Amino acid sequence: MICPLCGTWNRDEALFCKYCGRRLEGGPAKGPAPPERVLPPPAWRPRTWWHAIGVFAIFGAFLVFVDAAMDGVVSWSLVAALGLAFLAGGVLVLQYLASADRADRRPLVTGAALLVAAVLLLPVSLTLQTTSTTTETFVVPYDADVRNLNLDVAVEAGAVSVTFVDDTMSLVRAEVVHVGGLFASHFEGDVTNTTTKRGDPITFRLSAKGIPGLFFVGGHHVGVAIQRNVSVRLSLVSTTGDIAVDVPAGVAVRSISASVQTGNVRITTRDAAFAEGAPVHVLSMTGATTVDVTQTAGPVGNVSVSATSMTGRVTLTFVRGETVAAEVRASMSTGSVAFDASKYEGTRDLLYAPSREAFEAADLAFTVQLTSTTGSIAIG
User: Fold this and answer.
1) Domain count along the chain
2) Above pLDDT 70, what percent of the chain?
3) Which of 43, 61, 77 lies at the terminal end of a domain, its last residue?
4) Rounded CA gap, 278 and 212, in Å?
5) Handedness of CA 81, 82, 87, 89 (dihedral sign)
6) Residues 275 and 333 placed together within one structural domain of the fold
7) Cβ contact 283:271 at 8 Å
8) Domain extent for 13
9) Which of 12, 115, 215, 235 is 20 to 30 Å from 192 at the Cα level?
10) Each residue of 195-219: pLDDT tens digit?
11) Which three-class secondary structure string do you get for 228-262?
């Protein structure tokens, strides 16, 4: 049967035209319809196959806008572009296969080209992008006249580690390693450093930009090695990543502050030379905090220690000498407190190592505050 409106051939039993939808009346047509009733087919119109590309272009533009709004630069890598191309190509191919009219092969050709490019280039791009590479090294030359060092490190996405070494070539050596991710690359200017020297002390500041959250899987890992003969004040901050500090015996510590939003913090000291009133502050919003102190001896004075975690475990390990003691307070909203009864006396909320009398008579006294909102506290 021939549609009298558009001239499309239909099945004899069809009630409606498959092309224009006009109701078909009368019996099946045995031949061409009368010329006066047959209208020429409508002019060819481009199909809406490009809608898929438009949707993904808008989506990609939105993500790029969000990316640029976070740190002022577009840090998308080739991996992100290829991932978007893979999705767009797949939609185009599926749209073509689901279409009743396959005369227009442009969506198939375009989609197949995007798929092939993404499949061939993605493995190579992922390998290059996720390979750890040392991006920058910063060195502060050794100066025998400098006895005090202030270290400030801020990393938006990545880990921070601090160690102390015997190095007569440098006071500070910081290595920044870019650990690539699916949606971000390292750009020049992501890592900045300033060294301020006005006699003694010297201040070393380092900042590494990143995109913590949805658009970033990777970051800058910062490793700092400090000359062990200087007295240090440490201020370490990471938005997304772990922080680790290892203070060996004999290193003079004026203060340590380490905080992360998402990650773990671990501070380890071995017979450090704490200054009078030196504070050790550890904070993690969504991770574990650990303070591991071995102090068999030390100078006369007081050290305040605080370890806080909102949704993780808080752990204190304290090994002391005869002239060293600690007072430990634990505070929590939900969770439990466990402590080693052979090393502490008191209740779970207020403990003394080894006793209150020993704490009041100790040469070096640690005052510790452990806080957990929705986690457990372990005191050993």
Assistant:
1) 3
2) 80
3) 43
4) 32
5) positive
6) yes
7) no
8) 1-43
9) 215
10) 998 778 899 999 998 765 444 456 7
11) CCCEEEEEEEEEECCEEEEECCCCEEEEEEEEEEE
Same domain, 26 and 52: no
Judge if 308 and 272 occupy the same domain.
yes
Same domain, 18 and 95: no
Q: Are strands 170-179 and 219-227 parallel, antiparallel or unpaired?
A: antiparallel
Q: What is the pLDDT of residues 110-139, one digit of tens each?
A: 888 888 888 888 777 666 655 566 678 999
Lowest-pLDDT choice from 54-68, 87-101, 157-171, 187-201: 54-68
Distance, in Å, from the CA atom of 152 to the CA atom of 157, rounded to the nearest integer, reads 16
List all residues 6 or more positions away from 279 whose beta carbon is below 8 Å from its beta carbon: 255, 256, 257, 303, 304, 305, 306
Per-residue burial over 231-253, b if 16 or more Cβ lie within 10 Å, else e, is bbbbbbbbbbbbbbbebeeebbb
SS3 340: coil
Domain boundary among 126, 146, 179: 126
**C-alpha to C-alpha distance for 29 and 276, rounded to whole angstroms:** 105
Which residue's entry shows tokens 């080209």?
113
pTM: 0.71
Residues 68 and 213 both lie in one domain: no
Q: Examine the domain organization and report whether 121 and 249 are in the same domain.
A: no
What is the predicted pLDDT for the residue at 20?
A: 82
* Residue closest to 232 by CA, chosen among 220, 216, 246: 246
